[in-house]
Design a protein that fits this description.
Elements lengths: L4 H7 L12 H8 L8 H10 L8 E2 L5 E2 L7 H12 L6 E2 L1 E3 L2 E3 L3 E2 H8 L10 E5 L5 H8 L4 E5 L3 H14 L5 E4 L13 E7 L8 H11 E13 L7 E2 L14 E2 L1 H10 L2 E11 L16 H4 L16 E9 L1
Parallel strand pairs: 2-4, 3-6, 7-8, 7-10, 8-9, 10-11
Antiparallel strand pairs: 1-2, 4-5, 11-15, 12-13, 14-15
Helix pairs in contact: 3-7
């Protein structure tokens, strides 16, 4: 259902990525295997049922906004919403689609606004977004001038969400999402000008390995944008939750900013610097009509909202920028 042929053809003209093509189609086929994802036929059916609507306008610079309600008939708009809701839960966004607001769990636009002032210009950059979810920040990177953006995320549902929206954002645009984790990339690739890893590090059992993997995606001098949970602490301090953290099972290491910067230097990055700290609010991460499951308000101690339900420090997120050697 998702045609990666144009991407494969484009990668033939990017020398640094051409060697990946020998294994990439097989990796994609495995990542989108119905044996792994029992609901995949339903997601494909939703993609096929999306109405054909030509947007009058597209904005990926100030937001991600596609067309207006006047571009479609009421019947088309009703069908559009019905099919997009079949891809629930929508976690990253928001998206404006022909007058329909996909009000996602995360206000990912707020995170982008915190990151953007600290980016080296993305104009003509080859950008990788690791663990990108449904690709919201991929489109914002493209809007900031990147020449090609590749997102990777192993969740096939997020891939389906991405291509549902790419149908209207432009199927010929140089922005794609692959159903892969970072371990699928060839070692020592050294191809990308900018790599994003946002909301991934604390889910990795070995943070050092993840940082080395990120470094190997970047050309020398390329920039890493790392966004992750941190704790308020000194050099060497790190929270290792024995059980869950904010009801999440797969949270392994939450370092202090000084510790994280030290890890980055140890893994071959230059000039790591924390450029933003932000305590996650229930306005930024919340349950919505497009994400019915539990969210941040359910993860915090109702008597002490500065703590998680387990008694750990409430989510504090840092943006750290560094350069590959």
């Amino acid at each position: 259902m998702i045609d990666y042929t144009p991407l494969y053809a484009a990668l033939q003209h990017i020398p640094e990525l051409r060697p990946w093509l020998a294994q990439l189609p097989a990796q994609v086929a495995e990542g989108l295997s119905p044996h792994r994802w029992g609901d995949l036929p339903d997601w494909h059916a939703a993609l096929r049922a999306l109405p054909d609507i030509a947007p009058s306008t597209i904005d990926v610079q100030c937001a991600v906004s596609i067309g207006s309600a006047e571009d479609a008939s009421p019947e088309q708009l009703a069908e559009l919403e019905q099919q997009l809701r079949k891809l629930h839960p929508w976690r990253k966004g928001p998206w404006e689609v022909f007058g329909l607001t996909i009000d996602t769990e995360w206000r990912s636009d707020w995170k982008w606004d915190r990151v953007l002032p600290h980016l080296a210009p993305l104009k003509d950059h080859l950008v990788l977004d690791v663990g990108c979810g449904n690709g919201y920040h991929c489109w914002r990177s493209f809007g900031a001038g990147a020449r090609r953006v590749i997102g990777i995320d192993p969740s096939a549902k997020y891939v389906a969400q991405f291509y549902a929206l790419k149908k209207y954002l432009g199927e010929d645009q140089p922005v794609d999402l692959l159903p892969l984790g970072i371990e699928a990339l060839p070692p020592r690739l050294r191809a990308f000008d900018t790599t994003f890893s946002m909301g991934v590090l604390y889910h990795r059992r070995s943070p050092m390995d993840h940082l080395r993997e990120l470094r190997e995606t970047l050309r020398p001098g390329g920039q890493l944008i790392l966004e992750t949970l941190v704790i308020d602490g000194e050099l060497g301090e790190c929270l290792v939750p024995e059980g869950r953290y904010a009801k999440m099972r797969n949270v392994w290491f939450i370092p202090s900013c000084a510790t994280l910067e030290s890890w980055l230097r140890k893994c071959g990055f230059e000039n790591p610097r924390t450029v933003n700290l932000n305590t996650t609010s229930i306005e930024e991460q919340r349950r919505t009509d497009w994400m019915h499951f539990e969210s941040l308000a359910d993860f915090l101690d109702p008597k002490s909202p500065h703590k998680t339900i387990e008694g750990h420090p409430a989510p504090l997120r840092a943006v750290v920028v560094a350069n590959a050697t």
